[in-house]
């Protein structure tokens, strides 16, 4: 009987806390954020053996890797709920995480990209307006790695209004940046974006970039491809057809 009571008590505790505590499979993400916070605090206190900036940069990369390692189509619905809590900085599991780390553009942009990705496959029905505005505000960030993160994220959270900006980046033909901008145009699932890609392939001069865009265009058959699962209920879907 005592064993039964213990099991029931454990169930009551776990069930009552499940709404505010992230599932254990997301411990990797939380732990990496806590680790990055400790590194940031050491950087502030100047207690580093090596370069503070490089050490912190490595920790941010570990957080981004953890965020992506936990993504899957099967768990997108539950994981996106966790990601929204991260975006909102839910104090139920961010107490040990330094606000600077949570607010760092590279982390915010990756969380934004994954939330947008979940939105596109109908795992959630999330109003991405605020997230989209944040991503756009970093599209011309002077830090190249942050700008690149914003370009990648815009394909997941953007819409038809972002075609001109992304096309402009494609036509600049910077290695890596142009390719990611082309991919984001494709991910917008917008008629204007596909028209921009068809125009861009005729304008760019770098052969590698021209080939990359041409390969994207090969999959375009004249109709806008829907997100996986045929989702049409996103809030920005009015520009798709």
Could you say which overall geometry the principal axes of the C-alpha atoms support? globular
Tell me the structural class: mainly alpha
What is the average of the pLDDT values?
82
Give the helix proportion (percent range).
55-70%
Task: Provide a count of the helices.
Answer: 13
Low-pLDDT residue intervals, each spanning 5 or more residues = 1-21, 232-241
C-alpha Rg, in Å?
21 Å
Q: List how many beta strands DSSP finds.
A: 0
| Beta-strand percentage range | under 5%
What is the end-to-end distance? 63 Å
Largest sheet: none
Instruction: Write the H/E string, N to C.
Output: HHHHHHHHHHHHH
Please tag this protein with its features.
241 residues; mainly alpha
3D architecture notes:
- The relative contact order is 0.08.
- This protein has 13 helices and no strands.
- Helix 7 packs parallel to helix 9 (144-157), helix 8 (129-137) packs antiparallel against helix 9 (144-157) and helix 11 packs parallel to helix 13.
- The model is unreliable at 1-21 and 232-241 (pLDDT under 50).
- The chain is globular.
- The protein is mainly α.
Task: Describe how the helices and strands are arranged.
Blueprint: H1 2-17, H2 27-44, H3 52-69, H4 76-87, H5 91-94, H6 99-102, H7 105-120, H8 129-137, H9 144-157, H10 163-172, H11 177-187, H12 191-203, H13 207-218
Briefly, what is this?
This protein is an all-alpha fold and 241 residues long.
């Amino acid at each position: 009987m005592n064993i039964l009571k213990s099991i029931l008590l454990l169930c009551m505790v776990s069930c009552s806390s499940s709404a505010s505590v992230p599932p254990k499979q997301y411990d990797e993400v939380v732990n990496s954020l806590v680790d990055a916070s400790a590194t940031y605090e050491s950087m502030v206190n100047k207690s580093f053996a090596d370069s503070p900036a490089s050490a912190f940069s490595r920790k941010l990369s570990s957080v981004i890797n953890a965020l992506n390692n936990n993504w899957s189509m099967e768990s997108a619905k539950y994981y996106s709920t966790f990601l929204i809590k991260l975006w909102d900085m839910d104090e139920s599991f961010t107490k040990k995480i330094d606000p600077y780390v949570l607010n760092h553009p590279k982390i915010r942009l990756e969380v934004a990209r994954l939330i947008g990705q979940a939105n596109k496959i109908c795992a959630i029905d999330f109003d991405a307006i605020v997230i989209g505005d944040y991503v756009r505000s970093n599209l011309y960030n002077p830090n190249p790695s942050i700008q690149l993160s914003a370009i990648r994220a815009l394909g997941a959270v953007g819409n038809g209004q972002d075609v001109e900006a992304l096309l402009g980046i494609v036509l600049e033909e910077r290695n890596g940046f142009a390719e990611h901008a082309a991919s984001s145009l494709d991910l917008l699932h917008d008629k204007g974006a596909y028209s921009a890609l068809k125009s861009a392939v005729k304008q760019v001069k770098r052969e590698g970039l021209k080939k990359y865009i041409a390969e994207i265009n090969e999959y375009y058959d004249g109709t806008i491809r829907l997100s996986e699962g045929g989702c049409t209920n996103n809030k920005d879907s009015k520009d798709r057809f």
